[in-house]
Every structure is written in structure tokens, then in C-alpha cells.
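Morning!

This is the sequence you dropped in the shared folder:
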Amino acid sequence: MQTKAQQYQAIIRRYRDEHGVDQVDMHEVAKYAIRLGIKPPTPKTPEALLAERLSVAAREETGRDEVTGRPYRVNFAVTTWSGNDQMTLWHTLDTAPRHIAHKGLLQRREQMVGDAVSLVDDADHWNRIHANEEPIQIPLDFEFDVLLRRNTPDDDDIQQAA
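The structure's back. C-alpha cells below.
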């Protein structure tokens, strides 16, 4: 039996086949799926929508280190389990105990590793099916990139200098 995601993937493939396109606007695919009789998901509750917006706001909040002047994320999320339920708890970096900060930072690192694996798999696939073209090389050593970005003035620094 197909999962919901697999059903949706089949609809996307069918839409591409029937319309003869490679790139798709998911809003158009959604309209197409509804015409096919696919029941749209139940809309989120106002509480769930607000919780999402609060999470986005928490994720976006940055502070400046008093000594280094470097920006940092004020809030960070830690995914945890309560019985059979997965939940995300938000913490303040300045007040979080070490074990919580460590767990949150490691979870962010794991997300980066997962993204890197997926990126390499995607590039390898493209390179294999386009063997007659120059291969796309994706370097995974981010050390220089991080060093460069940490030493490039941000917009606030540029405005203050002007």
C-alpha cells in the first residue's frame, strides 16, 4: 500500500505526463489533484498556524555576542519525545544548560549532514544520466566558506561604516 507521500508523488508524475512539462507549479498540481477527487488535507487550526509563525519568529531572532560582535541565534529548537509523541521545545541559547545546547547543536549538524548526503546523491545521479556533459562537482569542505562568510561585513556593518 502506498503512503500518502507516494500517492502525491504519483499525482505529480501524472500531471507532468499529461501536461508534457518538466517544471511544475504545485498550486496547479493541487488544483489538478482536487479535480481528480483527491481530498485536500484538513486545514490547520488557528493555534497550529500561530505556533508555526511563532516558531519561525523564534528561529529568525538573532543577537550579537557582547565580546565578539558576532551574530548568533537567540533561540534554538530541540526535538524530543514525550511517550509516542515527537515534540519540539524551544530554548534560549544564553540560558540553556550545556546538555540541552549540545543536543540542539548536534541536531542542527545532523540536518546539515543529511542535506549533504542528499545533495551528493542528487549530483551523482545527474552526473550518471548526463555522462556526456561536464560533471557537477559539489565540494563538501565548508571550512573556507564559513571562514569567508564570518569575515565578510554584514549589512549592519556596511551601513555603520557609511
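Headline: The helical segments are 4-19, 26-35, 46-60, 98-129, 143-150, 155-161.

More detail when I'm at my desk.
O.
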